[in-house]
Write a structure and sequence with these properties.
Cell_wall_metabolism_enzyme; 226 residues; Dup_hybrid_motif; M23ase beta-sheet core domain-containing protein; Glucose Permease (Domain IIA); two-stranded antiparallel sheet; eight-stranded mixed beta sheet; M23ase_b-sheet_dom; alpha+beta
Length: 226
């Protein structure tokens, strides 16, 4: 039986180290909407061209007088139309399972709690994670996992499966495009109760019809982000 990871994390909320050198509750952090309701996404060509997509993100931040963007958990997004990586013959994947934090390339990323490196990979399809790190953690005797996507390639060279990491230890940096999967710079942060035998990769976007299943497997990362 899959553990109730959301309840476990809620019991420890407030005890986690910060993933960034700023609080996600800061006034400089604004929610960014990437659903079809956002009129800025009505022109898919702006999404396929990463430089234009980067400008779009900047416009959305400027509108809210913010320098950092955040959001996306269980958001049914329009932005995945930019890449065939998310197409499916039955139902396209558009339900986002993590939280994205839109920050400049080079921004340091730290582990929110102690653990070990589970796996790492460069998922280098267009629109994919690019360099990816997955950590394994344990609380109250229950193991779970955290995923960090869209990193720099140089980060992968400094880590190996089984390597211990401390809470608050910088493990990576947000990568530039195109090496980050060809996205405007941001961190995709996701939690998983079970890796399902996967290594160096895990679905970050799911079919909307499977929302209940994936929400149970991948609880809200804001339970951990400080």
């Amino acid at each position: 039986m899959m553990p109730d990871l959301a309840s476990l994390l809620a019991r420890h909320r407030g005890q986690f180290a910060s993933v960034f050198n700023f609080s996600v509750a800061s006034p400089q952090v604004a929610h960014l909407d990437f659903t079809a309701a956002n009129p800025r996404l009505a022109h898919p060509e702006r999404l396929r061209d990463t430089n234009l997509f980067d400008v779009l993100v900047g416009e959305m931040l400027a509108e809210q007088q913010a320098t950092i963007g955040i959001g996306g958990y269980l958001e049914n997004r329009a932005i995945y139309r930019r890449s065939p990586h998310f197409d499916d013959a039955i139902e396209p994947r558009s339900l986002h399972l993590g939280v994205d934090v839109w920050v400049p390339a080079g921004t340091a990323v730290a582990a929110p709690l102690a653990g070990v490196v589970h796996s790492l990979a460069d998922n280098n399809n267009f629109g994919d994670y690019g360099p990816t790190i997955i950590l394994q953690h344990e609380l109250e005797g229950i193991s779970f996992f955290s995923l960090y996507g869209h990193l720099t390639r140089t980060d992968l060279a400094g880590l190996a499966p089984g390597q211990a990491v401390a809470a608050g230890q910088v493990i990576a940096h947000v990568g530039p495009h195109p090496e980050n999967g060809d996205w405007p710079p941001h961190l995709h942060f996701q939690l998983m109760a079970d890796m399902q035998g996967r290594w160096g990769d895990f679905p970050g976007v799911a079919p909307p019809s499977e929302r209940a299943y994936w929400a149970s497997l991948c609880p809200d990362p804001m339970l951990v982000l400080q």
